[in-house]
Amino acid sequence: MTDSRHIEAAIYERLSKVIDPELGRSVTDLGMIAAIDATPAAARNGNDGTAAGARDAYDVTVHVELTVPGCPLSETITNQINGAVASYPDADLTPHIEVGSMSRDKLDDLVAGLKAERKQNPFNKPGVKTRIFAIASGKGGVGKSSVTANLAATFAALGYDTAAIDADIYGFSLPRLFGVHTQPTNLNGMLMPVTAWGVKLISIGMFAGADRAILWRGPRLQRSLEQFLSDVWWGEPDVLLLDLAPGTGDMAISVAQALPNAELVVVTTPQPSASDVAVRSGLVALQVPMKVRGVVENMSFYEHKGEKLEIFGHGGGERVSEQLTEALGYDVPLMAQLPLEPELRETGEAGRPAVLDADGALRADGVGAEFRALAERLMAA
After folding, report:
1. Which distant-in-sequence residues (6+ apart) come within 8 Å of 244 by Cβ?
2. Are 188 and 45 members of one domain?
3. Which residues belong to any copy of the MIP18 family-like domain (predicted)?
């Protein structure tokens, strides 16, 4: 025999394993479980008991308080709570989930606690294990954002907790490449990143008015990055990618100041006009505390009927690698030579990184295999 209080305590313990997908904490730690009521089903039905040998039957009502009304992941959370209740082994339980939202005071206390725990930029605290890759290019048009999007999707598909910041304030494109059309949830001044294809994302392009021309100068650009780092709840991702604006302007310097543990990945195309400028984006490491991790040559060739056509010339990635290695005094390898794939553009414009199939799994061949090798090489050091 079981009793109501035993069931309520056991259910609460099971709910401590249910994780809020945005905050990465259990719903019990976050105070989202306001009450649990277990009532014998016989009392409701007016019966004296259950058949001999049958397990006791109970109605279990879980009172859930979401952090914000209309939380976009409320269905996910309630489904997980239903599953946790239904898995109780010692009685037949019929779960009922009553969903409300936290009071303003309770939410204020929760957000204040989370902010105090994080203490601003979470990626600068001692012992942080997040690998940070800043994806840079000397000029636009080399496919830097496409490389960032597909690399982020690859990391996520490989099982890494992955985040990406669209730090190209003037030419943001990650929302389109990931098919994002929603805004981040505002949790009393703390933003929840939008998750798409397994990647946690933030971009100025997710906010109202982002379709207008942005005329920000240095100080405001730096502040935008600081807000993306400190005012967004990232949790503790394994990998953070930043899609930088082309060139060596204010944002690259801001990244180096805010994230001195970031590793620069320089993207170029084969032709000299691109590779010569790409070298300059890597040489920023001579002036700021940032290591250049390696070079990625994009649009290296186009494969047609088994022949590799070098449409944009040859050797750009090697030139950048060699010149940066000599200038910086350490090895800056050419880490990947990615083919020119129309699918990268076509699929990306449709809102799905081309490395993933329609179900979100990493493709085993083609660009999927190329980006998997790049991701594994980046994480090897």
Report:
1. 134, 135, 136, 137, 144, 167, 168, 251, 252, 255
2. no
3. 8-39
